[in-house]
Design goal:
alpha/beta, Rossmann fold, elongated
């Protein structure tokens, strides 16, 4: 990737050098250049520069994860347009260098603490996803986080529940995953890190389905413990037929993607404030389990793409600050560790906090955040 940047940089320097050389020959050396020589040299220089630029872009395109598809598409369309193509290439170069420095710093940091195994917790880590996703092997819901944890000594498993179902159904699937892990590893318990609805499902499994015997800690990330008030209000306004039609299409799609019995409507209903209030009554914290929670928030609607930008605008006037799906007031549960903050203007969305888009955010290293979270569990004896 860095070599690709260096190719682009070499092309830029070459262009400036050629222009400066010709300017000197014509303006100062008073040298008259024949047209065939000028054309021949121009063709040679162009071919040479195209090789350099193509080499650089191929390297960056195949290696960089932070140069977005939008930038590549614009470059493919406007590569021939002077000034615009230079601006786009400059943007690619800046992003590439930034990404290289980030990855280099991360690699050096992990190498320096390799022997410490800072994430080698007493009990394995169980990552539990939120609604409308699955634990796919080809696309990890948790982005680059699992790899970072494993590199630092963690043992990772996944909840493997369906993408959406009623809380009792999802909780039963998580229970089965916990028992399977206990049997396979011989561990006495697990540490659960759950995102979004996964936190509610996990609480139900712990308190109602008897998994408190096998869970050492539960850390919830952006979980709507007190529900989503806006979800109930929206469902009241949207015609039942429209919701049912969307649900049917969703269930057909995710049945093909691996769900056995996806239940779109039940999953949504169980996220409303009324349903969560009822769940909080029947699923109290268990005394032998550490409960802790973390939240994040977007700072503006431009901090994330669709549908989180739309969600931010809907929730803001109704429930205040939010991450695009969950109001920050609904996130605390147990020992509240606070809101994850960033020095940039973007904030951290519902997807950013689990590295869903694999996007580096100024002032927030998502992988290091989870390494720190798990290393604290290790220091606490979990």
């Amino acid at each position: 990737m860095l070599g690709g940047y260096e190719c682009l940089l070499a092309a830029e320097v070459s262009v400036l050098a050629v222009l400066a050389f010709y300017l000197y020959l014509i303006a100062f050396a008073k040298l008259t250049i024949s047209l065939p020589i000028l054309i021949g040299n121009g063709v040679f220089a162009t071919v040479f520069l195209l090789i350099l630029v193509s080499n650089g872009l191929i390297r960056i395109f195949t290696m960089s994860r932070q140069n977005g598809l939008k930038t590549y598409i614009l470059l493919a369309i406007f590569w021939w347009l002077p000034v615009v193509n230079v601006i786009l290439l400059k943007k690619v170069c800046r992003t590439t260098v930034k990404e290289y420095r980030y990855e280099l710093k991360k690699s050096e940091r992990n190498r320096n603490r390799e022997t410490a195994q800072v994430c080698a917790t007493k009990y394995p880590i169980l990552l539990v996803h939120g609604i409308f996703f699955r634990d796919w092997k080809a696309f990890n819901y948790w982005g680059r986080i699992p790899k970072a944890l494993i590199e630092n000594g963690a043992t990772i498993f996944y909840g493997e529940q369906q993408s959406t179902a009623a809380v009792p159904v999802s909780a039963a699937e998580i229970r089965d995953s916990i028992l399977k892990i206990i049997k396979e590893t011989g561990a006495e318990k697990v540490n659960i890190i759950a995102h979004s609805k996964g936190g509610i499902d996990s609480r139900y499994a712990i308190s109602v389905l008897g998994m408190d015997k096998y869970v050492a800690s539960l850390t919830t990330i952006n979980t709507p413990h007190f529900g989503c008030n806006y979800a109930r209000k929206l469902m009241d306004k949207i015609p039942d037929k429209a919701v049912a039609a969307i649900g049917n299409k969703y269930e057909k799609l995710f049945t093909k993607l691996g769900d056995t019995e996806p239940d779109f409507m039940s999953g949504l209903v169980d996220l409303t404030d009324v349903a969560c209030a009822q769940l909080n009554e029947i699923a109290p914290n268990m005394p032998n389990v550490l409960y802790q929670s973390i939240g994040s928030q977007m700072k503006s609607r431009s901090a994330a793409g669709f549908p989180l930008n739309l969600g931010y605008m809907i929730i803001k006037p109704m429930e205040g600050e939010n991450d695009g799906l969950v109001a920050t007031t609904s996130m605390p549960w147990g020992n509240y560790l606070g809101l994850v903050t960033t020095t940039g203007k973007q904030g951290i969305s519902h997807g950013d906090v689990i590295d869903l888009t694999r996007k580096n955010i100024d002032g927030f290293d998502v992988c290091e955040f989870y390494v720190d979270l798990v290393s604290k569990l290790k220091r606490q004896g979990f």
